C-alpha cells in the first residue's frame, strides 16, 4: 500500500465524499502522511457515510459546496493549500449516459469545473494537481492497447472529450503559471462505495428483476477494470516518482473484460427409481437418481440461422447454425449433465430449446423438456 509523500502534507479533494474520493480520504488520513485534508463536495453523488469514520479527526475539514461556484471553490482552495499542497480533482459528471440527451453536461460538469479548479490554484499561488482523467480520451481503439503516447486521440463520447480538453488546459496552466500536474487516465474503477458503472448497473437490474438482465449494446464490448485500491496506489506512487512539471499516466490493467452474459443451464436426464425407461428431466445442477445406462442426450434449437433470425445453443455460447448443438453419450452413465449456453439475435421473437433423449443410439429422439425463449426471457 502506497502512502502519500508528495506536496506539503496538505490536501483538498474535489469530490472527496464520492466513490474514489472517499478512498483517497481514507488513505491520506489513515496513513498519517496528511497534515490536513479538506473534502470539497456538493454531495450529489458523494455521501457523508463514505467518510463518517473520519468526522472526529481534527485534520479533516468538510466544505459542502459545488465546484461550479468559482468563488466558493477559490476560498476553499486558498484556505486548504495556500502556498503549496495538493489538489486532487475528481469532480465530474457521474452520469455518463445522460450526455446522450444532454450533450452539454460533460462540458458544464467537467471542463468548466477543471477550469475553476485551475483558476483557484493560480489565485492561491500554485501547488500541484492530481487529475482524474479517463481512458475515454483515446476513443475507440478496438483491440489496440493504448499507452500514454498513443495518438491521435479521438474521443467518441462527450465525457472523453471533456477529459481530453481538461488535460490540455492543465498542461497550459502548468506552462503559463508554474503549476505541477499529474494526470491519470483511469480504466473502469470498481470497489466498495461504487456509485455507478456496469457492475453496479447489473446488480441493480437483477435486484429489480432476477429473471431478466438487460445489457446495453450487443454485450461484446470489453473494458479494462481496476480496483479502487490499485488506483490510489498508482496515483500516490506516480506523484512521488514523477519529476517533470506535467506528466500523464495510464492507470488500468493491460487486459480487458467483456460484459457479455450468457444464461447457462445444467440439464439432467435420468430414469425413475423403479428402473423403467420412464424418462424424466430436471433443470438442476446434478443427477438425483440412478441415471440412464445407454443412449444419448442432446440439446437442440428449433430456430436456426438460415434467415438471420436465430436462436443458438452451444457449449461456448455461440454455437454452430445446426440443429444439434450439444450432445453427450449416456452409455454406462449413472447420471448425465449437459451444460450449454444460448444466444439469441435481437430480431428473434420466440423459439424453443429442447432437451431430447435417445435410447437407440440416436436414430430417434424423445423430447423430455422444452424451454420457450420468449422476448422477455432473453
Describe the model:
Helix 2 crosses helix 3 and helix 3 runs parallel beside helix 4 (158-177). Residues 261-294, 303-325, 344-349 and 373-378 have low confidence and may be disordered. The strands form five sheets. The chain has a seven-stranded parallel β-sheet, sandwiched between helices. The chain is 24% helix and 26% strand. It has helices at residues 19-31, 70-81, 105-123, 158-177, 198-208, 228-241; strands at 10-14, 36-41, 60-64, 86-89, 128-134, 180-186, 188-190, 222-223, 225-227, 246-251, 257-258, 264-270, 280-283, 296-301, 311-314, 324-329, 337-344, 352-358, 366-372. The relative contact order is 0.10. The chain is an alpha/beta fold. It is elongated.
Quick description:
The chain is built from 6 helices and 19 strands. It has 378 residues and is α/β, with parallel strands linked by helices. Helix 2 crosses helix 3 (105-123) and helix 3 (105-123) runs parallel beside helix 4 (158-177).
